[in-house]
Design a protein that fits this description.
The chain has 368 residues and is mostly helical. The chain has 15 helices and no strands. The structure holds fe (ii) ion (2 copies).
């Protein structure tokens, strides 16, 4: 079925066009690469997986509660609107929220694919081009699995949020080659990764859990790539150039924190925009969620050397400054382990079922 039949409202244009700026670069040096980057490229090749096979698509999903979201974590919980809602309305609201959230993941993944392809084109060194080519494929697979989940299991999609779109546009319009890394790999992917992680670790539904765990296994490599590339490059920039990057980060962080809240979902339920914003603002759960969204960005920004006074002040203002001390390597290693453990458990369960089946057959044979 065409996605356009599943959108809550028409996305406006069928194709979004962003005029390209900056140069496409070729390198004629084929034999020299940074060891760590080439090792990451090798890992990127080794760890490819097929979403059509690795994910158990036959698992059923209740579209009216795809993630097993508890009442208290709904933004309307505790408001006068919630009290008026029937169970059916609440199911409908859960469906819209899950659809909105996974739709933003999906559009973000397409953005990540386009940015990774842009990096292949514009980055000067061949080792980085090689690596980014594997990432382009990773992001294609991510977009594929989120798209399939929304089409087959939820049956509803939301267009891209206006503010996410404007950040993505700014990232792609900039001609400086590090900007797709900063806007996409650090900001958008950092936020997405934190959101994926919170759902992965709280949902009791096996299908979305698999999707998120496997996607995050790949994202751990992407973050490593962004950090490696930017840490090297930002050491060479002047103070003024670094401040420009920091301003971009500050603006992007406020925009994502304040303008990416799913207010459009509540508007679809007839709640006026101002009141919808107020509900999202007052929800204790969402306030915590918004803070945790920064758990991956803040340590990454610090690590790549964007840690000037203005940026530190902004993070203090947002209440996320302390997150700069988190150990990113440990978080990434954990993301990889969780996916591997999930695989091991699933294999063990399948193996157990197969053994039981064989034992039943033997028992049936002996009984004869
Ligand atoms: Fe991705
Ligand atoms: Fe990614």
């Amino acid at each position: 079925m065409s996605t356009h039949e599943l959108y809550t409202h028409a996305p406006g244009e069928t194709t979004w066009q962003i005029p390209a700026t900056g140069a496409a670069r070729f390198s004629w040096e084929y034999d020299e690469g940074r060891d760590r980057l080439l090792a990451l490229y090798q890992k990127g090749k080794d760890k490819q997986w097929d979403g059509a096979k690795r994910i158990a698509w036959d698992l059923e999903v209740d579209p009216y509660d795809p993630l097993g979201t508890p009442d208290e974590s709904m933004s309307l919980y505790g408001t006068r609107h919630w009290d008026k809602m029937t169970d059916r309305d609440k199911g409908e609201l859960r469906k819209h929220y899950a659809s909105w959230q996974f739709s933003q993941f999906l559009h973000g993944e397409q953005g990540a694919m386009v940015c990774a392809a842009r990096i292949v084109e514009s980055v000067p060194d061949l080792d980085a081009k090689f690596y980014s080519a594997t990432q382009t494929m990773d992001e294609a697979r991510h977009a594929e699995v989120y798209g399939r989940f929304l089409h087959d299991k939820i049956g509803m999609l939301y267009p891209i949020n206006d503010n996410l779109k404007s950040l993505l546009g700014d990232t792609l319009r900039d001609s400086r080659w590090d900007m797709p890394y900063l806007g996409m790999q650090v900001l958008i992917e950092g936020l997405a990764l934190a959101a994926f992680g919170m759902i992965r670790d709280t949902t009791d539904k096996p299908l979305p859990k698999q999707i998120l765990a496997y996607v995050m296994q790949d994202e751990a490599r992407h973050v490593a790539f962004g950090r490696m590339a930017l840490r090297d490059y930002y050491k060479q920039l002047s103070d003024a150039e670094l401040r420009e990057r920091e301003e971009f980060v500050i603006e992007g962080c406020y925009l994502m924190r304040d303008r990416l809240r799913g207010v459009e979902v509540l508007e679809n339920f007839g709640i006026p925009k101002a009141e919808a914003e107020e509900c999202s603002e007052n929800s204790e759960f969402l306030a915590l969620f918004r803070q945790l969204l920064f758990s991956r960005i803040v340590p990454c920004v610090k690590d790549i050397g964007l840690w000037g006074k203005r940026l530190q002040e902004a993070y203090v203002d947002m209440g996320v400054f302390e997150m700069g001390n988190a150990n990113l390597d440990q978080l990434m290693a954990q993301d990889e382990e969780i996916a591997e453990k999930l695989d091991a458990e699933r294999f063990a369960a399948e193996e157990g079922a197969r053994v039981a089946e064989v034992e039943d057959m033997i028992a049936a044979g002996e009984g004869r």
